[in-house]
Amino acid sequence: MARDLALLIPEIAVLLTAVGALIAEMLRRPQIALLVAVSGLIVATGLTVSLIGEDTTVFGGSFRVDDLSVWAKLILLPATILAIFLARVDVRGTVREGTVYSLLCFATIGALVLAGAGDTMFLVLGTLLTGLATFALVAYPDTDPATEAAMKFFVFASVTGAIMIFGLSYWFGAAGSTLLADLPGMDTMPMAVLLGFVAVVVGLGYKASLVPFHFWAPDAYEGGPLSIAAYLSVVPKIGALFALAQVVRDLPPESGWTAIIAGLAVLTMTYGYLAALAQTNVIRLLAYSSIAQSGYFLLGILAVGASELALPSIILFAAAYAAMNLGAFAVAASTGRTLNDFDGLGRAQPLIGLAMVIFLLSLVGIPPLAGFVGKFLLFAAAIDVQYTWVAVVAIINSVLSLAVYLRLVVPMYRQGNVVVARTDIWLKAVLIIALTVTLLLGVFAQVFVGPFA
Amino acid sequence: MLPLVSLTLFLPLVGAVLILCLPKPATRTVHVIAIITAALTLIGALSMWFQGASGAGFSQVEELQWIPAIGAAYRVGVDGISLPLVLLSAVLFLVAVIYTSSLRERPRAYIALVLLLETASIGTFTALDGILFYVFFEVSLVSMYFMIAGWGHEDRQRAALMFFIYTLLGSLPLLLAILGLYLGSPEPTFDMRAWIENPPLEGAAAMWALIAMLITFAVKIPAVPLHTWLPAAHVQAPTVGSVILAGVMLKFGTYGLVRFALQMTPDAFREAGVVVLILGVVSALYGAFAALAQSDLKRLVAYTSVNHMGYVIVGVAVAALTLDPSVRTVALDGAVLQMFSHGLVTGALFLLVGMIQDRAHTREMGELGGLLKTVPMLGWTFVLAAFASLGLPGLAHFPAEFQIFLATLSASPAAVVVILGIAIIAGTFLKALRETFLGEPRQRWQSMPDLSAREWLAVGPLLVLTVGTGVAPSWVLGIIHRTTSALAL
Question: Where are the coiled-coil regions (chain B) (predicted)?
Answer without folding.
Answer: none
